[in-house]
Design brief:
Number of strands: 21
Number of domains: 2
Shape: elongated
Radius of gyration: 29 Å
Order of helices and strands: HEEEEEEEEEEEEEEEEEEEEEH
Helix content: 10-25%
Strand content: 25-35%
Strand order of the largest sheet: 17-18-10-9-16-19
Distance between the termini: 19 Å
Number of helices: 2
Length: 265
């Protein structure tokens, strides 16, 4: 019965972790370039169940020298609950939203923009960019968007038309002024990990390479988190949590009867 309490409690902790992940997805349903997370569950290694006295010299299956089976009887295994093994990021593309702003950029296919942060180079698909007072192209948090050469991109103050090509070339009034830093990390989606604020950082050893995707100007990539799907998953998660909670209550009642009634007899 004690083991049943731990197993049910492990399930409750797992579903609580999943609820936190779903809540974060819902909170970022309107965040540009956000990629939803998924809580991946795994099962603790099950325990082999053996009958009492199966290791005794005289088997409980033996009777007057006769045994049905000289081998220990196979009872089965006992599950020990689940745990959250990983919180994985779903890199599926989000829908595009047209804004008409020439500094709003979205990525179709694979790729990231390169951002300069106090923690070092970071990568994002949030192309909601602005022109700072000094002319530099920056994110909504004021962090510099870097060029292919790793330097800040300066937009001329008197530029009337800004054109960004599919591969990141930036033109002001018909003259090229710079190239956007536009990279990817190959087919391994786990090469980059979330930092927050729609930023990603590379795993140790992951090297950026030229992106194979294309850049769309005047549009933004919306979050790939779907509110309806997340709410359905949240309700299902609550029901599983509730079932585990009832299992804990049942185990507690059985322990109470064992101690206060069976023990008294």
């Amino acid at each position: 019965m004690w083991r049943g309490l731990y197993t049910a409690a492990a399930g409750m902790i797992t579903q609580d972790n999943r609820t936190s992940v779903i809540a974060n997805n819902l909170a970022n349903a309107n965040t540009t370039g956000y990629k939803r997370d998924r809580a991946i569950d795994a099962e603790f290694h099950p325990m082999l169940i053996r009958r009492i006295n199966d290791d005794m010299p005289i088997k409980v299956t033996d009777f007057k020298g006769f045994s049905l089976d000289r081998r220990p009887p196979v009872v089965g295994t006992l599950g020990l609950g689940s745990f959250t093994s990983e919180v994985a990021t779903d890199h599926a593309p989000g829908n595009f939203m047209t804004t008409g702003n020439p500094l709003d950029l979205a990525i179709s296919g694979e790729g990231f923009f390169v951002i300069d942060t106090p923690q070092g180079l970071r990568y994002t698909r949030n192309g909601n960019f602005y022109r700072a007072t000094n002319g530099d192209l920056v994110t909504s948090n004021g962090q510099a968007v870097l060029s292919r050469q790793g330097r800040p991109i300066n937009i001329p103050e008197n530029a009337e038309t800004i054109i960004v090509t599919a591969q990141g070339g930036i033109y002001a009034d018909g003259a090229q002024i710079d190239d956007l830093g536009f990279v990817e990390f190959g087919p391994d989606r786990r090469a980059v990990l979330k930092q927050g604020d729609s930023l990603f950082y590379p795993q140790e050893g992951a090297q950026p390479q030229p992106a194979t995707g294309s850049i769309e100007q005047g549009v933004l990539e919306r979050s790939n988190s779907n509110v309806v799907n997340e709410m359905v998953e949240l309700i299902n998660n609550y029901r599983i949590y509730e079932a585990n909670s009832r299992a804990v209550t049942t185990q507690d009642q059985m322990l109470d009867h064992s101690v206060n009634e069976v023990g008294r007899l």
